Amino acid sequence: MSAPSEKSLAALLDERRTFAPPEDFRRRANASDPGIYDRALRDPEAFWAAEARQLDWFTPWQKVLEWNVPWAKWFVGGKLNVAYNCVDRHAHSARRNKAAIIWEGEPGDSCVLTYGMLEREVNRFANALRSLGVAKGDRVAIYMGMVPELAIAMLACAKIGAPHSIVFGGFAAEALRERINDAKAKVVVTCDGAWRRGSIVPLKASVDEALRGTPTIQSVVVVRRIGDAAKAAMQAGRDVWWHEVTDAASDQCAAEPMDAEDMLFVLYTSGTTGKPKGIVHTSAGYLVGVSTTHRYVFDIKEEDVYWCTADIGWVTGHSYIVYGPLANGATSLMYEGTPDYPDRDRFWSVIDKYGVNIFYTAPTAIRTFMRWGTELPARHSLSSLRLLGTVGEPINPEAWIWYHDYIGRRRCPIVDTWWQTETGMILISPLPGLTATKPGSATRPLPGIVAEVVDAKGDAVGPGAGGYLVLKRPWPAMMRTIYGDPDRYVQQYWSRYPGVYFTGDGCKVDEDSYFWLLGRVDDVMNVAGHRISTYEVESALVDHSSVAEAAVIGRTHEVKGQGISAFVTLKEGVTPDDALKNELKQHVVGKIGAIARPDEIFFVSELPKTRSAKIMRRLLRDIAEGRILGDTTTLADPAVVARLKTQYQEEG
Ligand code: ATP
Ligand code: MG
Questions:
Q1: Between 20 and 30 A from 150 (CA), which of 23, 313, 393, 498?
Q2: Nearest residue CA, atom 1 of ligand 1?
Q3: 420 C-alpha to center of ligand 2: Å?
Q4: Among all ligands shown, which has an atom nearest to the Cα of 315?
């Protein structure tokens, strides 16, 4: 593991434009006073306390922060209820008939839940959970597609103080079983099946398989999403239908007063770098963190329609489809399908259908849209959009510009938001009314956040230099521990530098103190003594007009230490041949320098990705080095890796 070098980083981009916030945006922005950064830096606890006052508390806190490195307690002594803050208080205000959730299902289905309706549904399901014996502190596993009942189930858990553990509905039975057992869940909430591109994903059948080895599960609640075609088998004494248990339940339910530090949920990381970790988040600090950042970063206004395209099975969906937006009384759009069904312009037609104002998606999706061409978004107005966001991976400058030009129509600021399951909330991002953006940079730590890029000894690196991203002060939505494994929490995040949170990401700061994320520290290569980040080489490749996506790895090389291997997918209609390989190698040389010239390029039809759609370079490294593959349970499609392995052995 080594930090990227100054030399190669300085050469990273010839995209040098900066984009100032449009004047009318700046004037109306929720964060429009640049003094917010200094204020928060001078007295972070006062800053967070002021934000915390936006929530409804049953008992006020006595102390904002108790910090015994690395154990944090925020809003000590305070009591509140997260669901009450996200639903009830709005349902008993002028927002009663405002849309809380707009749900767009696979073609043909849609519905709107107002805050008043959501309150009744959450109460019914909260009572249903209680009738199944779920009490405060019991864990509930949730394994569903993107249906409204998923949000209802989360909020119902929060209402009665039962931490949820959501497992992405795309995972197979084994991954579900592991997560149920790790969290020792008492109940699973699922669907008979989920729709995906017009076909049925048999969720209930996966649950049945997972439950062959889950001693703690007592009941299964099943949403009837598909109907008879799902052929879900109900096991008497264990399985109940959602509609039956909720029909029988009262729509009145008092919120459980929760200690600020009571656990709200456990959620497993994406597994990009290894075996997933069960991240624990608690109630008050988490809600303060996600509501504050949602308000400032997404500039949410009363009349906005806000759409985050993530799946709720990931932290992005937890924090920025459900908890952040609903705490702010916003209208959050929830989408069930995929971007390409029934057509590849589905996202753009959904934006026009609902007049979406704020749109938040991932670089991997943007690269896919680029591959599909500009004609698809051009068919739609997209005139309601006023702000765009991205999360999940570093965004290649080429993709940033495309997003800005063809989706934002050069009118919308872009917030590139850096954060992790562990951080709970966005930590590094522009504030869209204040920050001039640079394509490829997440810009600055948010107010109240102290981030730094350090070298191996822990000393801050100078402008232009690369190193490790660390966080030097606690923040309210930070993880509290790894579920059932406090030692690993200390070891993984707090042991490299005393008192400092180690993110595991490589980063550089530029002369304006902007942060440039460079991917995982393990993804930084050492080529003949030069440290080069895989992200720089990938960005240079994606910059070429024929390339759709690229994954770059360092492979042991007798002479250079590491050689560079690139796996490349091409845009539609491009012919893969040796001439193009040479052209791409030259393109990288032209962008970064001869030192970054890939030793080998493979044209592949797909890259290995996690189910949260991040490129998994570690498996490519395993293939290139002829090793046994590491943990593959979080792969989106195991067949991709199998094909790549064969191809590598044939061509490599
Ligand atoms: P695991 O921790 O299990 O290996 P993971 O790190 O992919 O998986 P997540 O918590 O989903 O799990 O992802 C967080 C990581 O995603 C960050 O550490 C960072 O590497 C990457 N990331 C997220 N947003 C950005 C961004 N805007 N720019 C650059 N990288 C980002
Ligand atoms: Mg991680």
A1: 393
A2: 271
A3: 6
A4: 1
Q: How far apart are CA 469 and CA 518, in angstroms?
A: 10
Could you give the angle at the alpha carbon of 114 between the alpha carbons of 230 and 87, nearest 5°? 100
pTM assigned to the model: 0.94
Question: 235-276, pLDDT tens digit by residue?
Answer: 999 999 999 999 999 999 999 999 999 999 999 998 888 888
Evaluate whether 563 touches 601 at the Cβ level (below 8 Å).
Answer: no
CA 644/CA 652 separation, integer angstroms: 11
Residue 429 Cβ < 6 Å to ligand 1: no
- Of 525, 212, 240, 545, the closest CA to residue 374 belongs to 545
Distance 612 CA to ligand 2 centre (A): 12
The reply to whether omega before 21 is within 30° of 0 (cis) is no
Closest protein CA for atom 28 of ligand 1: 394
Residues forming a β-bridge with 281:
265
Query: For residue 178, which of 214, 220, 216, 219 has the smallest C-alpha distance?
Result: 214
Paired strand residues for 102: 112, 333
CB 105 within 8 A of CB 337: yes
Burial label for 221, CB within 10 Å (0-12, 13-18, 19+), is: buried
Q: Does 517 sit in the ligand 1 pocket, CB within 6 Å?
A: yes
Query: Of 489, 513, 490, 440, which is closest to residue 41 (Cα–Cα)?
Result: 513
